[in-house]
Amino acid sequence: MLLYDRKTDSLWSQVKSEAVTGPLTGTKLRSIPSVVTTWKRWKTLHPNTLVLSTKTGYRRDYSRDPYKFYFNSPLAFLGFKGKRDKRLPEKELVLGIVAESEKKAYPFSVLKGLKSPVIDTISGQKIKIHFDKTSEEAYATLNDGTRLTGMVSYWFVWSSFHPDSTVFRPR
Length: 171
Fold this sequence. Notes:
Layout: E1 2-5, E2 10-13, E3 18-21, H1 39-45, H2 68-72, E4 93-99, E5 102-107, H3 108-111, E6 118-122, E7 125-132, E8 137-142, E9 150-154, H4 155-161, E10 166-167
Parallel strand pairs: 5-10
Antiparallel strand pairs: 1-2, 2-3, 4-5, 4-9, 6-7, 7-8
């Protein structure tokens, strides 16, 4: 996905965390930890959260998910030109972590079968991979609890940008 910067006419790559066209090409974004979770889990953890109104002044059915078909399909989107990495199914969800020069993908299908947190090492540093089986929320921390920046992504996206990524396998 590319994000458009109206102020500078730059395009920013979400996966690379940098501008890929325009006057800011090569400029890196500072990554901050985020989480993909269910609304139910979010509301439980953050009960005072406010939600934007669907009364936007536009005729649109906000209760309809325009991506439902895509999410339920096992195949990547039409027209994908990247090299297909067969180590995992294209649409396998992974938690991708970049630590120094090492990149590692943690497949959700593997994490579902393990007790959380999973202890692992990346770039010589011990980390914990936290995975909630109900909400399929995944994130990584250092041993002291500091959240690491990670990215939940489909495998075909992660492997396209990080072809040298290691795929986590339990011992």
